[in-house]
Amino acid sequence: MSIISMRNVSKFFGDFQALKDVSLDVALGERVVVCGPSGSGKSTLIRCINRLEAHEQGEIIVDGTELTDNAADLEKIRGNVGMVFQQFNLFPHLTVLDNLCLGPKRALGLSDAEAKDRAMKHLERVQIPDQADKYPRHLSGGQQQRVAIARSLCMEPKILLFDEPTSALDPEMIAEVLEVMTELATSGMTMIVVTHEMGFARRVADRMVFMDKGEIVEVGVPEVVFESPKSRRFGAFINQILSH
Amino acid sequence: MKPWITLIPALLLLSACSGNWGWYVVNPTTTSGWNNLNFMISGAYYTIILSLTAISISVVVGLLVALPGLSDKRGWRMFNRVYVEIVRAVPILVLILWVYYGLPALSGITLNVFWAGVLALALSDSAFQAEIFRAGIQSIGKGQYEAAQSISLNYRDTMRYVILPQAIRRILPALGNQLVYMLKMSSLVSVIGMQELTRKANELVVSEYRPLEIYTILVLEYLVLILIVSAGVRWLERRMNANDS
Question: Residue B244: pLDDT above 60?
């Protein structure tokens, strides 16, 4: 049974159609990497899954609940779907620990002590427990993104969405973030990752999704699609990415 | 720069043209001068209480008016616009007179001088506070809202724990400005008989016939109050910045 089911989803920004009749199923525990040229709709696709963008046509069912404007449903789904952003989006006025504790305390109703225990557990998982009392701006980009991942994990979600998590990082910091993501993948987390890191895709993805101009053009197992892409557009994209 | 340094030019100016002055009226070494001085300074109590009460109310009302202005619903935004445009358009003095003399005739509610003054000042200032809050909240990036949503925070918690703490830091200098403005505008409440600094000075002028000296002292009184407020706001800004570094 799939934990995410998108059926004929379309999304418009004014006259521009960002998603064209997209259908995608993701199974529990599956790791899906979404790639494609900029403006192809890959960010919009995952932002629709926790309704940071509202789709106009089709249906999206996450963990048995259809996404609508119903606020209670939405809070429930967002509790189950974590998101990691390209720009980290940490709360700059809160310490690392408070960034992590805010959701568990306010949305899940944990006590201070429970939230702190949970936060420290996940900070250890992303290997920066010693930064708990610092403010985000005193951390490196790679550390900030790992804090952001830990913040998502503190909600103990079933699904984690990654929106180009390494695109804003200096090259030497990409590895530390990918390492954490790989560890998550091997632990059985359901992940949908928008990224251009093809090495990461090869290593961890169960499935590759290639998007172009708002459509899903090709879906397949990494070993197969990398060696013999069916569509010309995907072939050209892979060549471009791998040749630079 | 030390704030008291700004007092020096004022004092130099005063002593330079001493020929025309009759400082005896507020000379603290004489009994009557000492009494006059005390009489004037005693007005500070109401000036301060009135301003602080009014600004506390206007900050809350301003925030409550600002939030609908950020809604995606047209009706809410309209409410914000109409409130701000109307309230901002009424001169404070007119509002004071209207609240004190007009409101009882309209509604049967009679407010004493203090509360009429507080209401008029708070109402007038709330429109400006609403605009300040709106600008402050709008300066917080979309990513902060999205991050809050992604950890399942509802609107109230998002505002309370994520957006407003950041917005308030940014608008603190503007809030300080409003407090300074409020201290000065409270002098207008003297027209309905509020016993604050300006009213006291006026009363003393009537009995002593030394407007030059008495109003000069009045200027200095406001100057001192406002320098204290400025220092306080700067201290608060420094403390907030120090807090997260």
Answer: no
**pLDDT over 90 (residue B237):** no
CB contact under 8 A, B151 and A152: yes
The Cα–Cα gap between B136 and B168 comes to 7
Residue B12: inside a domain:
no
**B151 shares its domain with B34:** no
Total tally of structural domains belonging to chain B: 2
pLDDT at B13: 65
Domain limit, last residue, from B151, B179, B194: B194
pLDDT band, very low/low/confident/very high, at B3 (cuts 50, 70, 90): low
Asked if B102 and B130 sit in the same domain, the reply is yes
What span, in angstroms and rounded, lies between the C-alpha atoms of B71 and B65?
11
**ipTM of the complex, rounded to two decimals:** 0.92
**Domain annotation covers residue B4:** no
Burial class (CB in 10 A: 0-12, 13-18, 19+), B213: buried
pLDDT band at A211 (very low <50, low <70, confident <90, very high): very high
Which of A53, A77, A87, A91 has the highest number of chain B CBs within 10 A, making it the mutation to test binding with B?
A: A91
Instruction: Name the residue in chain A with its Cα closest to that of B147.
Output: A89
Nearest chain A Cα to B142, which residue?
A: A89
Whether residue B1 lies inside any domain: the answer is: no
- Specify whether B170 is located in the same domain as B243: no
CA-angle at A71, arms to A70 and A73, nearest 5°: 70
pLDDT in tens, A155-201: 999 999 999 999 999 988 999 999 999 999 999 899 999 999 999 99
**By the CB < 8 Å criterion, does B143 face chain A?**
yes
Stronger pLDDT, B21 or B117, i.e. the higher one = B117
- A window 33-52, beta carbon within 8 A of B: 50, 52
CATH of the domain at B179: 1.10.3720.10
Count the Cβ atoms, other than its own, within 10 Å of residue A177.
25
Cβ-based contacts of A82 with chain B (< 8 Å): 150-151
Q: Sheet containing A159-163: give its strands across.
A: A81-84, A159-163, A190-194, A31-35, A207-212, A215-220
Cβ(B116)–Cβ(B185) below 8 Å:
no
Are B78 and B138 within one domain? yes
Range of the domain at B201: 17-43+195-245
State pTM to two decimals: 0.85
From B146, B153, B244, residue closest to A106, measured CB to CB:
B153
Q: Are residues B97 and B135 in the same domain?
A: yes
Please indicate whether, in this complex, the C-beta atoms of A90 and B162 are within 8 angstroms of each other.
no
Q: Per the domain annotation, does B152 fall within a domain?
A: yes
Q: Are B166 and A52 within 8 A, CB to CB?
A: no
What confidence score (pLDDT) does residue A103 get? 95
Are B136 and B165 in contact by the 8 Å Cβ rule? The answer is no
Same domain as B90, residue B184: yes
Of B144, B149, B169, which has the smallest distance from its Cβ to A91's Cβ? B144
B152 to chain A, any CB pair closer than 8 A? The answer is yes
**Is residue B112 located within the same domain as residue B143?**
yes
Residues on chain B touching A71 (C-beta within 8 angstroms): 154
Residues B128 and B231 in one domain: no
Q: Does B169 touch chain A (CB under 8 A)?
A: yes
